[in-house]
Structures are given as C-alpha cells and as structure tokens.
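Hi support team,

I've been running sequence recovery on a batch of backbones for a student project. Most finish fine, but this one hangs at about 90% for roughly twenty minutes before it completes. I'm not sure whether the input is malformed or the queue is just slow. I've pasted the structure tokens below so you can try to reproduce it. Let me know if you need the job ID as well.

Thanks,
M.K.
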C-alpha cells in the first residue's frame, strides 16, 4: 500500500516537473524572440529622440542668429 502511494506521488512529482520544464522552455523561446524586438524598439526610439534633438537644436540656433541679425 505504501509503495503504491510513493509510486503515485513520484509520478505526480514527475508530471509537475515536466510541466514546469516545458513552461520554462516556452519562456526561454519567448525571451529569445522578444529580446531582439525590444532592442530594436529601443534603438528606434533612441534614434528618433536624437533626430528630434537635432531638429530642435538647429531651430534654436536659427532663432538665436535671427535675433542677433536684427
């Protein structure tokens, strides 16, 4: 009787471990897919911010030179 209970508990434990392993594997696959996407979005955001900074900076320089010419 106790052997059957132990065997049953071991089977349940193995099923739980298998499910957790599969979930971890899925999370790892998702991370491999999602990390490059996130890096790409961050780089696009960074280049956009830099581009806007260049536009604002040139606009401010233009305003300063206009005021000095007057």
């Amino acid at each position: 009787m106790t052997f059957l209970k132990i065997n049953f508990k071991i089977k349940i434990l193995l099923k739980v471990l298998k499910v957790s392993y599969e979930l971890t594997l899925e999370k790892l696959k998702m991370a491999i897919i999602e990390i490059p996407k996130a890096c790409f979005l961050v780089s696009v955001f960074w280049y956009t911010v830099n581009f806007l900074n260049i536009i604002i900076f040139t606009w401010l320089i233009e305003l300063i030179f206009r005021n000095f010419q007057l």
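--
Follow-up from support: It reproduced on our side and the slowdown came from queue contention, not your input. The chain has a mean pLDDT of 84. No action needed from you.
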